């Protein structure tokens, strides 16, 4: 499908969801990544003729790549969109001290770093809002079964995924055609720039962290050394990988 017709269909669908549900406020989960950038821009375009207020919501996981929040603020300023920053409490390293580093089989990070602070924020908001995000079906097999629109069990608001059927190539073409300000961190990192949770991070990625952002890397090494269980931040082929050895 040509990007022009895909845009038209997506904008029409988003507009219909807003109108049919009598939405009075639009919340865009903006992580600083490409997918959420496209959704933010789509919301910006819809606002022009529906006049619905937009709030971009950014979760400061306390372990985002340095510079990511600065970029998020710049984009929101560019499109005159109000930004709300929410944070987890306690922070990531306090939770690591309590529970150890999250792993692929023990992923406490997503709920405590992202869902919980968002749940706290949306619990204070009116019930006539709509949350939109950059979730796409082809990002994982698990997401294939997601409904495109649903009532979020944690946030207690309707949640819609406007670009759910888009491909990665569709996203990149949209960014290019509309000259969107892409996050400069993509010049170093491939993805997941809003959170350095260890559950799915690789040794190679942490070597990049050590090279470009040594102060944040040092916090991980220090947290690793304080674990009474002698736990490591990473695992590779079933074996512990200590960041102090990188």
Given this structure, which CATH class of the largest domain is correct? Alpha Beta
Q: How far apart lie the N and C ends?
A: 45 Å
CATH topology of the largest domain: Rossmann fold
- Regions with pLDDT < 50 over 5+ consecutive residues? none
Order of helix and strand elements from N to C terminus = HEHEHEHHEEEHHHEE
Total domain modules: 2
The proportion of residues forming helix, as a percent range, comes to 40-55%
Shape: globular
Strand content: 5-15%
- Give Rg in angstroms: 19 Å
Instruction: Report mean pLDDT, rounded to a whole number.
Output: 93
Give the count of helical stretches. Answer: 8
Biggest beta-sheet profile: 6 strands, mixed
- Structural class, please? alpha/beta
Question: Would you spell out the secondary-structure blueprint of this structure?
Answer:
Blueprint: H1 3-20, E1 25-29, H2 34-50, E2 54-59, H3 68-78, E3 82-86, H4 92-99, H5 109-122, E4 129-132, E5 149-151, E6 158-160, H6 168-177, H7 203-212, H8 214-226, E7 234-236, E8 239-241
Parallel strand pairs: 1-2, 1-4, 2-3, 4-6
Antiparallel strand pairs: 5-6, 7-8
Helix pairs in contact: 1-2, 2-6, 7-8
Descriptive notes:
The protein has 246 residues and is of the alpha/beta class. It folds into two domains: 3-189, Rossmann fold, CATH 3.40.50; 201-246. It is 41% helix and 13% strand. It is built from eight helices and eight strands, in the order αβαβαβααβββαααββ. It has helices spanning 3-20, 34-50, 68-78, 92-99, 109-122, 168-177, 203-212, 214-226, and strands at residues 25-29, 54-59, 82-86, 129-132, 149-151, 158-160, 234-236, 239-241. A six-stranded mixed β-sheet has the order 3-2-1-4-6-5. It has a two-stranded antiparallel sheet with strand order 7-8. Strand 5 (149-151) and strand 6 (158-160) form a beta hairpin. Helix 2 (34-50) packs across helix 6 (168-177) and helix 7 (203-212) packs across helix 8 (214-226). The model has no long low-confidence stretch (mean pLDDT 93).
